[in-house]
Amino acid sequence: MAPNQESTARTDDVIEKYDEYVMPIAKGYDPFSIERAEGTTMVTADGEEYLDCFSGISVTNAGHNHPAVVDAAKDQLDDLVHTCSYVYRNRPVADLAEKLAEITPGDLQKSFFCNSGTEAVEGAVKLARKYTGSTEVVALEMAFHGRTLGSLALTGNHGYKHGMAPTLNDVTHAPAPYQYRSPYGDCSEEEFAARAAAELERVIGTHTSTDLAAIVVEPVMGEGGIIVPPADYLQRVKDVAHDHGALFIADEVQTGYGRTGDLFACDGAGVNPDILTQAKGIADGLPLGAFTAPAEIADAFEAGDHLSTFGGNPVCCAAALANIDALRDGIVDNAREQGEWLGDRLAALEAEFDRVGETRGTGLMYGVELVDPTDGSGVDGDDSAAPAPTSEAAKAIQTHARDEHDVLIGVGGYHKNVLRFQPPLTIAREELERAVTAIEDGLGTIG
Ligand SMILES: Cc1ncc(COP(=O)(O)O)c(C=O)c1O
Predict the structure, then answer these.
(1) Using alpha carbons only, how large is the chain's radius of gyration in Å?
(2) Using a 6 Å cutoff on CB, does residue 92 contact ligand 1?
(3) What is the C-alpha to C-alpha distance for residues 283 and 57, in angstroms, rounded to an integer?
(4) From the alpha carbon of 287, which atom of ligand 1 is closest?
(5) Is residue 250 over pLDDT 80?
(6) Is residue 117 lining ligand 1, measured as CB closer than 6 Å?
(7) How far apart, in whole angstroms, are the C-alpha atoms of residue 221 and residue 231?
(8) Backbone φ and ψ of 72, nearest 5°
(9) Which of 190, 230, 261, 382 is most buried (most C-beta within 10 Å)?
(10) What does the alpha-carbon distance between residue 38 and residue 258 come to, in Å, rounded to a whole number?
(11) Which tens digits make up the pLDDT trace of 73-125?
């Protein structure tokens, strides 16, 4: 549908109200307002259709408005909207908690429900403190764990912290497992994992009391630029944590619910976390977060240690139950299958274009790191031959894909130079092909 006077006025109205009444925290919005969405398609107020390859920042894993999720939410709305699930029990919370015990890795059993990823991370840290009796936490440089003052302390990126200090005390950061810009020179994946674990030990030994509550790690670092660690890295981190009496917290807010081609990235890595944080894809867009732990750890919480008014909202929990069924009914398999094809296609772009420093990912969580091939200066602390990052190229290709191909892709990474490809996991091969063509065309255009 081509824009007409009426729809353009509707869009302008939304833009004006955003300018006037919404706090100015976005770096720049796309020039439209989204009115509807279904599957992989988002439709603007002007009736323009876009292929969504970012899923509202990796949230609508089962596709926008999955019918079973919408129906479950609607049915629950008719019966019960709110009780405060920690004052009056209700069935959706009970059933979802039981379901999470079934589907999460290892012996994770008891869940606390909240409303977002940042709350899940902060709650997990509180539980780790309670269980271990220690307070100090180690996270990774370039990590993203949220923006409220507790999780912001764990986020390893100064860009999010300007003007916000002090945040939570007792957080120390160790280098990220970012082999493309390795601080350890050229080495095999196995050597890199060993060096990264040794560096983690060194940081703990020099910057902490060594009595830790937790080490918090994203199994694949999303906002940091889709950084996939070497195969045995997570197990090494868990071992280091346990050597220090600490818990290993896997922050699967972004990687969970099928994103990496497994229901949880820890499943793929064969590592059982002590606490697993979840949000984003858990309810296909309804606001819900959770952290889940084995009974022995979970029972360290005593009455009054934690609570959330809206956490475990019955409507969101009912939606999550339907979402999990849908994901397990072929959608995660699709992510794995399409991801294998996508990885090969992106690798071909890496071979063809000097602009592409590296393509990396798993499942339908892929990053395309863009570089300036004429600038070999790299970045500080980087002992690799990787050229300098270029955020301008990433922005230009993102805009090109949107304006010329009606394809929406994300941009992220510590250096803001990584195209983020995280579509609904229901995406079809032809749609993927269209998205890769948009990137390829964009690369050709920017030269
Ligand atoms: C790994 C990870 N943890 C935590 C968060 C914070 O989640 P939320 O924005 O729901 O608070 C994010 C958000 O991007 C994330 O990617």
Answers:
(1) 22
(2) no
(3) 14
(4) 10
(5) yes
(6) yes
(7) 14
(8) -60, -40
(9) 261
(10) 19
(11) 999 999 999 999 999 999 999 999 999 999 999 999 999 999 999 999 999 99
Q: Do β-strands 407-408 and 49-52 pair in parallel, antiparallel, or remain unpaired?
A: parallel
Which residues, 6+ apart, have CB-to-CB distance to 292 below 8 Å? 100, 101, 104, 108, 109, 110, 111, 112, 275, 276, 278, 298
CA distances from 358 to 202, 220, 366 (A): 29, 15, 11
CA of 270 to the centre of ligand 1 (A): 23
Q: 410 is written with which tokens?
A: 């994300």
Cβ-proximal residues to 86 (8 Å cutoff; 6+ apart), any chain: 307, 308, 311, 312
Q: Could you tell me if the CB of 217 is within 6 A of ligand 1? A: no
- From the CA of 222, give the closest atom in ligand 1: 16
What is the Cα–Cα distance from 402 to 392, expressed in whole angstroms?
Answer: 15
Determine whether the shortest distance from the Cβ of 60 to ligand 1 is under 6 A. no
pLDDT given at position 169: 83
- The CATH number of 67-327, from 3.40.50.720, 1.25.40.10, 3.40.640.10, 3.10.50.30, is 3.40.640.10
Q: What CATH number has the domain spanning 5-65+331-446?
A: 3.90.1150.10
- Measured from the CB, is residue 146 less than 6 Å from ligand 1? yes
Q: What DSSP element (H or E) covers 322?
A: helix 314-326
| Residue 268 identity (one-letter amino acid) | G
CA nearest neighbour of 338 among 231, 401, 261: 261
Is the Cβ atom of 279 under 6 angstroms away from ligand 1? yes
CA–CA dist 429, 47 (Å, integer): 24
Residue 371 dihedral angles phi and psi, to the nearest 5°: -130, 165
Q: Are strands 247-251 and 212-217 parallel, antiparallel or unpaired?
A: parallel
Instruction: For ligand 1, say whether the CB of 259 is within 6 Å of any of its atoms.
Output: no
Dihedral of CA 130/146/356/385: which sign? negative
Domain ranges of the chain: 5-65+331-446, 67-327
Token pair of 400 as six digits:
């090109």
> How far apart are the C-alpha atoms of 32 and 45, rounded to whole Å?
7
User: Is the Cβ–Cβ distance between 264 and 256 less than 8 Å?
Assistant: yes
Longest dimension (CA), the chain: 66
Atom of ligand 1 nearest to the CA of 146: 6
Could you report the per-residue pLDDT of 26-68, keeping only the tens digit for each?
A: 888 999 999 999 999 999 999 999 999 999 999 999 999 999 9
